[in-house]
Amino acid sequence: MLAVGDAAPDFAVGDRSLYRILGKQGAVLFFFPKAFTPGRTREAGGFRREYETFRRAGFEIVGVSADDAETSERFRASLDLPYPLVSDPDGRVLRAYGVRWPFVGLARRVSYVVGRDRRIQRAFSSELDAEAHVSGACTFVSSPRPRP
After folding, report:
1. Neighbours of 102 (CB within 10 A)
2. Angle at 145 between CA 50 and CA 94, to 5 degrees
3. Structure pTM?
């Protein structure tokens, strides 16, 4: 897992890249094991509910899993998510962020708040409490401090 202050590795986010997003605003990256599971649905729904709070604070949300592109898109559409989900079936992004479970190949449930300087500002890890990622990131980006 990356630590606060570490550089966030770049990766493709649809037709953009993380670094292109960070050129305009901060980002909240949340890694999750698998689409269409109860925990993932709660977490994704929580980020959807708080989407405008993150946007007003100057942050884009990006979800990442080892699911294939078709599954990620079906999941995004099924929940009407206003933010992108990144498919990483080969685990390249998961490994770069230190969140890939060995042998299993799925992502650990980890969230990062990344500033415009491309540095990790906050890191959360909880396999069992998906909502903690949403509330923790939301509280962090809403607290008085320098903008991303």
Report:
1. 5
2. 55
3. 0.90
> Under a CB-based contact definition with an 8 Å cutoff, are residues 108 and 127 in contact?
yes
Looking at domain 16-141, what is its CATH homologous superfamily? Glutaredoxin (3.40.30.10)
Instruction: Tell me the pLDDT tens digit for each residue of 72-91.
Output: 999 999 999 999 999 999 99
8 A C-beta contact, residue 111 and residue 123 = yes
67: left (phi over 0), alpha (psi -120 to 50) or beta: beta
Answer whether 27's CB lies under 8 Å from 11's CB.
no
Strand, coil or helix: what is 145? coil
Mind listing the pLDDT tens digit for each residue in 28-79?
Answer: 999 988 888 766 777 888 899 999 999 999 999 999 999 999 999 999 999 9
Q: Is the dihedral of CA 35, 36, 37, 38 positive or negative?
A: positive
DSSP code at position 119:
B
| Amino acid at residue number 20 | R
